[in-house]
Fold this protein.
Amino acid sequence: MKSIGLFYGSGTVKTSKLAKKIQMAYGEAEVELVAVETAWIDDFKSYKYIILGSSTWFDGELPDYWTELVPALEDLDMKDKKVAIFGLGDQVKYHENFADGVGLLAQLFESVGAQIFGLTSPEGYKYTRSKAYRDGKFLGLVIDVENQSSKTKGRIEEWVKQLKKEFK
């Protein structure tokens, strides 16, 4: 079994594309893609390291594919598990809840004992508020494919390089 499970919403095109790009940048042999829609709670326990991916819906909500799992995840023991999060946001149209999905997942997984890794700088983004932001950092990789698509590849490469150091 691969040591890194990358959980993402396979029914959302942009999140799926980013998940595959992260897998390729990390190394296809090291990262197993897991569709959240079909994941079982035991799947989260079976990997040494976990990467979570989500978009942000509406006014700062997690997509249905995550919210349906939340009740079960709240009882999950993730003590000392290393988790990294990537998410999508639109800093122009949704500047008041930019990439909130990242923050919501971080909060959920921290509440069950996980340690959040892969924090990134908010430099280069313009937004009003974000649940993904805490103590001067984003709680993961934040991608805005709508307004900064030209920065996506570089941001993924830098983040993966960072995770390779942190996931040890």
